[in-house]
Write a structure and sequence with these properties.
heterodimer; A: 70 residues; two-stranded antiparallel ribbon; 2 helices; B: mainly alpha; Hydantoin permease
């Protein structure tokens, strides 16, 4: 069986954490702080979502084995 | 103000001719007269076409006209849409690598081929096929109704709803019958280009009119501060629930799975999905931007009025900036393209399931003889389209009713694909059909039970998300009990 991302527990744990972090739970208590005109919670979610995209792309590139199907 | 409706009629006619031309061209490229050629383009989709067809299929009419309305109602917190569209691509990682490998070895045509070969259980195959067919009928009907409303609305009522449904349905059926998956993928590629161009233009035009995101958010805070306030616990739960619902359910659409099968090479498929992981940051962020701009330009709209916010904002753009007429027409065309590209993919997948997994199975035809059923494939496409157009002309359910149940049911197949692809069927410790069926029963019971007792969302979590949690737990418990 060829390699695949879910066979790498550390990678999957990182992916799960990143996925959970996209929801702005740390700001649910109601922090209305801003950074460069945008709410801080939005920066947080945008950052985590971009990180999630990068992590998904990296996982596909690194761990999705070709196994003869070029 | 320039007449957008008249412009849409002309642009729509040109667009329709282009689609039919692509359909005719794809017919010339058809190879062997087999189901694999008709439904999977003989597994020949290269990187560019594959990427654009994945993109156009994933972004339905709801993404372009429904998401801005939802943003208008929920405010900045609907940025969650970007996250859950990324989640769909992440969901592929949970089963697609192994499924792609099995599909190559077993020459799969439909998702049910996987269920049949991996589990060897007619019961699971039957239930799985039924769920996929119900989901596709539901989704295709929703797209046909959306197409009728969009064509009627965009043409300023010059084309009535009924003719929008019939005309759009006929064009889709014509190019699909001509070239099968090849035609669908080529037209999806054209629709994908229109979508990308339309969205980028929309973002640029809005930037000129309402200013930067920071200026826009400041303006919203002045008229509706609650729309930019930090999301509360319930909204955060809803965010996570949407992530799980779309991440586990989105990749299970038969049309999505068939694009995994149809890729020319694994390298092309991997590159297409890597690109797809970043597209929501452009496409859906723009869509959210449209909804937020609507909050400033048209404050105080009621719930259902907000659904038409995309068209109100675009009409405003043309009124303020007459030079934006042609770009706005392209955006309007993108809305129609998003609906049609999803509808054609649903129709093709539905036809493949009815031909290969229902008719061929009932007729007792094996793989090689079933491959020759292309005539039946065309006939099933015609019958499905005629039947659903008839239903769409006299809708007994609303668009909302159709969308509500779709994911709650489809997502319950997730363990069959995610856990089922962990092991080969003959491997010790492999999940069995009984485990999966037990989980499926538990998941459907929880999801449908909650939905029909009026608890579609509980503490911010969807009935489908709670159902699939029960489903996974049941599968694991049954497997452990079996090994004891």
């Amino acid at each position: 069986m060829s390699d695949e991302p879910r066979r790498h527990p550390v990678y999957m744990a990182l992916l799960g954490l990143c996925a959970l972090a996209t929801s702005p739970y740390p700001f649910a208590a109601g922090s209305g702080r801003e950074l460069a005109g945008l709410p801080l919670w939005l920066w947080w979610s945008v950052g985590c979502t971009i990180a999630l995209s990068a992590l998904i792309a990296w996982g596909i590139h690194r761990y999705w084995g070709s196994d003869g199907d070029a | 103000m320039p007449d957008l409706a008249r412009g849409f009629l002309v642009a729509g006619a040109v667009y329709g001719v282009l689609l039919l031309t692509l359909g005719a061209l794809s017919r010339m490229r058809r190879g062997r007269d087999t189901l694999s050629d008709f439904y999977l383009a003989d597994r020949s989709l290269g990187l560019v076409v594959l990427l654009l067809t994945l993109f156009a299929t994933q972004y339905s009419g709801n993404s372009l006209s429904g998401f801005p309305g939802q943003t208008y109602r929920e405010g900045l917190a609907y940025y969650m849409a970007v996250t859950f569209m990324v989640a769909i691509v992440g969901g592929y990682l949970l089963f697609a690598p192994r499924l792609r490998q099995m599909a190559q070895e077993g020459s799969y045509l439909t998702p049910s081929d996987y269920l049949r070969e991996r589990f060897g259980s007619p019961a699971l195959e039957g239930v799985g096929t039924a769920i996929l067919i119900v989901t596709l009928v539901n989704f295709l009907l929703a797209q046909l109704m959306a197409m009728g409303h969009a064509i009627s609305g965009l043409s300023g009522g010059r084309i009535p709803y009924a003719w929008g449904v019939i005309g759009g349905g006929t064009v889709i059926l014509a190019y699909e019958l001509a070239g099968g998956m090849r035609a669908v993928a080529w037209t999806d590629a054209l629709q994908g280009v229109i979508l990308v161009a339309g969205l980028l233009l929309a973002a640029a035009l809005l930037y000129r009119i309402v200013g930067s995101p920071a200026e826009l958010i400041s303006a919203i805070a002045a008229v509706a501060p609650e729309k930019v306030a930090p999301p509360g616990w319930r909204t955060c739960n809803l965010w996570l629930s949407n992530f799980l619902l779309l991440g586990l359910g989105g990749p299970l659409y038969p049309q999505a799975i068939q694009r995994i099968y149809a890729a020319r090479s694994l390298r092309d498929l991997r590159r297409a999905l890597m690109t797809m992981a970043f597209l929501p940051h452009v496409a859906i962020t723009t869509v959210v931007f449209v909804g937020l701009a609507g909050l400033v330009l048209f404050p105080g709209l009621s719930g259902t009025e907000a659904d038409g916010i995309t068209f109100r904002v675009l009409a405003h753009v043309v009124a303020v900036e007459p030079l934006a007429y042609l770009p706005v027409l392209l955006v309007l065309l993108a809305v129609a393209a998003a609906i049609m590209s999803t509808a054609d993919s649903c129709l093709l997948s539905l036809s493949s399931l009815l031909t290969r997994d229902v008719a061929a199975r009932l007729g007792g035809l094996d793989g090689r003889r079933a491959e020759r059923l292309t005539g039946l494939g065309s006939l099933s496409s015609i019958l499905v389209m005629v039947a659903l157009v008839a239903v769409a002309l006299r809708p007994v359910v609303t668009l909302w009713d159709l969308l509500v149940l779709k994911f709650e049911i489809l997502i319950q197949l997730s363990p069959a694909f995610v856990l089922g692809t962990l092991h080969r069927a003959d491997e010790p410790g492999a999940f069995s059909a009984r485990d999966v069926l037990a989980g499926l029963g538990a998941g459907l019971l929880v999801a449908l039970g909650l939905t029909f007792t009026g608890h579609r969302v509980l503490w911010g979590f969807h009935a489908g998300t709670l159902g699939v949690t029960a489903n996974y737990l049941s599968v694991v418990i049954f497997r452990r009990a079996r090994f004891r």
